Amino acid sequence: MIEKVDVKCGFLCNNRCLFCVQGNKRTQIGDIPTPDIIQTLEKARSEAYSVVLTGGEVTIKPDFLKLVSKAWELGFEHIQIQTNGRMFAIDDFCDKTIRAGANDFSLALHGHTPALHDYLTQSNGAFYQTVKGIKNLKKRGQRVGLNIVVNRSNYRHLPSIAALAVRLRVDQYQFAFVHALGTAGENFARIVPRYTLIEPYVKKGLLIGILAGKSVMTEAIPYCMMSGYYPYVAERIIPKTKIYDVGVIDDYTAYRVNEGKLKGEHCTTCRFDAVCEGPWREYSQRYGFYEFRPVPNPA
Ligand code: SF4
């Protein structure tokens, strides 16, 4: 049984993130016509009660509010908007989106300062708009989560980004290790850090949220890098998701395990072998497996 459907609504975006996994879909595919998305939503509704509207940047679509309303009319109980959050800097846009039926917001924030976030998104003013968007949504009582993509430029600042997330009163944040596909793959050397370098900063960043009573998670960080923080590995609890992209991925968990990630031979001796997905395939193909040390069973 699927728990969630993730619907890509087009690949246009007002950011130009250095680590975007969509790569050339922006130019090769661009927008997806609204009638096609509505057709997908109608089909998806028979499969799940929870939908994520995403892109690209879904909020810049002229028919964005129409799509949210359609998802609500179809009876989706959980309607999440996955977004860079910039459009939510506009009060009226927040009100209209909430009135249309959206009830969960996942925003992308990759730095604790304008210099860092705007550099990573290659968009001047993006930090101020996203932060204002978070404040606007929280002011209206909405559930807000943050997705923070861990990369070479921001990993040392993860504790500061976490502290900002707490100050902004977000409900949840997650550190997602960059996936070297699309633009991130083209910029590999500039973008992808070593797991062993990020580990202490990830843990400090998690601790800040834990102490503040926030829900915190990591994504695509194997258990052997998470000693003392095993319960925060998101893959343990990611719901079974179907993705409507250019093609359809029926089971994203199976896709991640079988195609997205790659483990080493020695992983078979690790106590987490049965539940660990390992690092992204592109990472281990480039950097190898030497950092990943099997975790022994407790004595
Ligand atoms: S199974 Fe492999 S990648 Fe996963 S935690 Fe163990 S050693 Fe690390």
List its salient traits:
299 residues, binds iron/sulfur cluster, alpha/beta, TIM Barrel, nine-stranded mixed sheet, 12 helices, 37% helix
In short:
The chain is an alpha/beta fold and 299 residues long. It has one domain (4-287): Alpha-Beta Barrel (TIM Barrel), CATH 3.20.20.
What topology emerges from the helices and strands here?
Elements: E1 4-8, H1 25-28, H2 34-45, E2 50-54, H3 64-74, E3 78-83, H4 91-100, E4 104-108, H5 114-121, H6 126-139, E5 144-150, H7 158-167, E6 172-177, H8 182-186, H9 188-191, H10 195-211, E7 215-219, E8 241-244, E9 248-249, H11 252-260, H12 281-287
Parallel strand pairs: 1-2, 1-8, 2-3, 3-4, 4-5, 5-6, 6-7
Antiparallel strand pairs: 8-9
This protein binds iron/sulfur cluster (SF4).
Architecture overview:
There is one protein chain. With 299 residues, the protein is an alpha/beta fold. It has a single domain (4-287), classed as TIM Barrel (Alpha-Beta Barrel). It has 12 helices and 9 strands. The protein has helices spanning 25-28, 34-45, 64-74, 91-100, 114-121, 126-139, 158-167, 182-186, 188-191, 195-211, 252-260, 281-287; strands spanning 4-8, 50-54, 78-83, 104-108, 144-150, 172-177, 215-219, 241-244, 248-249. Strand 3, helix 4 (91-100) and strand 4 (104-108) form a beta-alpha-beta unit. It is globular. It binds iron/sulfur cluster. Residues 222-224, 263, 267, 270, 272-273, 276, 278, 292, 294-295 line the site of iron/sulfur cluster. The site of iron/sulfur cluster has 13 residues, from loops.
